[in-house]
Amino acid sequence: AQNKEFVCRGHDYERLEAFQQRMLNEFPHAIAMQHANQPDETIFQAEAQYLQIYAVTPIPDNQEVLQRDGIPDNIKSFYKVNHIWRFRYDRPFHKGTKDKENEFKSLWVERTTLILVQSLPGISRWFEVEKREVVEMSPLENAIEVLENKNQQLRTLITQCQTRQMQNINPLTMCLNGVIDAAVNGGVARYQEAFFIKEYILNHPEDGEKIARLRELMLEQAQILEFGLAVHEKVVPQDMRPLHKKLVDQFFVMKSSLGI
User: Fold this and answer.
1) Alpha carbon distance 196, 223 (integer Å)
2) Can you give the C-alpha Rg of the chain in angstroms?
3) Dist. CA 217–CA 209, nearest whole Å
């Protein structure tokens, strides 16, 4: 099919490279394109056969199932990847001058949503894309989404740890470590410099609510981390006590940089 787009469900645990190889074996004359950018007209008009393959993220329809407490994780993970019509991929790019010290200031995201003719998985493992929508997310919107996702991930891991659904606590340890480490090494300060300074607030009067939302999410993250560390302390094995203590110490540094 010429100049058509499909979303295809790979085999279980199949890596993108393996899927690409499988497709290229099926289309031996195809030229693989190594990027996810929209191809230009010359490619669309070309006599040669091109294949562009990249990963997309499912957008679940049943948000209320995913957000409701008390629903088992295995049911949630089923809805995350089944009965899906819409998929998306993001392409980060810099607009204007890129600040060497603080990349958050100019980091935009071009988000493409692909809408299928039918939901996956179906009779077939792949369906055609009926419509694509492209929106640009500003650096501030991008920051809000990153924090929302991270807070959600932390909450889920803490709950799994509390309800003993976790065989080992490594995922929680790694997540706490990643968030606290990033915050102490300038993450929080970078957001503050980018969006909370007078200059930004004056130049973007329309962003008042979003700035308030970002601040709220940062404070919320501190509360989640505090709770997460308390849960972690109860279950942390002896050999990881030093790391736990380091996390607690770093967390206090983070709190003071937030002005809490």
Assistant:
1) 20
2) 22
3) 12
Select from 213, 247, 211, 249 the least CA-distant residue to 232.
247
33-80: pLDDT as tens digits = 888 888 888 888 888 889 999 999 999 987 777 777 778 878 888 888
Question: What number does CATH give the domain 139-258?
Answer: 1.20.58.740
Q: For residue 65, count CB atoms less than 10 angstroms from its CB and return exposed for 0-12, middle for 13-18, buried for 19 or more.
A: middle
pLDDT in tens, 9-18: 999 889 999 9
* Nearest of 228, 77, 75, 255 to residue 155 by alpha carbon: 228
CB-CB contact of 70 with 109 (8 Å): no
Q: Rounded to an integer, what distance in angstroms lies between the CA atom of residue 179 and that of residue 218?
A: 11
Q: Which residue has the tokens 């308390």?
A: 230
Angstrom CA distances, 222 to 101, 113, 134, 234, stand at: 24, 32, 33, 19
Q: What residues does CATH 1.20.58.740 cover in the chain?
A: 139-258
The pTM assigned to this predicted structure is 0.82
Contact 1, 108 (CB under 8 A): no
Task: Kindly report the number of other CB atoms within 10 A of residue 86's CB atom.
Answer: 18
Q: Which amino acid, 21?
A: Q
